[in-house]
Amino acid sequence: SMSGNSKRPTVCGLTCRSPRCAVDTPYEGNVPKFSRINVWDPYKRLGISHDASEEEIWGSRNFLLDQYAMHERSAESIEAAFEKLLMTSFRNRKKSTINLKSRLKKKVEESPPWVKNLLGFVEVPATVIILRRLFLFAFMAGWSIMNSAESGPAFQVAISLAACIYFLNDKTKSLARASIIG
Fold first, then answer.
1. Residue 10: beta bridge partners?
2. What was the pLDDT predicted at 4?
């Protein structure tokens, strides 16, 4: 029979316990449960600070898994927090890009004066000019490969020389100087 004031059912004076989840039922004695299973913040769940290094994260994970390995839900909670931090770290590394222009500028600024003078002689043309020249010389290279057996490279070399003179004339604004340099 059931007693009126008690919340647990009793049968013949014996108190019956409510059924528990099979995951929570220990096979070997009293297994410790992880107290921060329901903590949302993965850093707090693992018991580390937000600026913890990767070694500290791994160490905390391994320590907690050693302590709570027998309790499946605890181990799953620890692994979930660890994986969340690992994926966040991976995404941050993937997002970070290396800015080569600023690195090169910094290297040039830190370099000796003779390197700065040497780099002062080199001019970097506009992207449109580079692409125009790239297209022309790539076309001539492809044409040379396709027609290499017919007449030899003499015609392609003459076209390349004319292109060099044209590009130098475009830069120097003097056909005579471009012809001499080319």
1. 15
2. 45
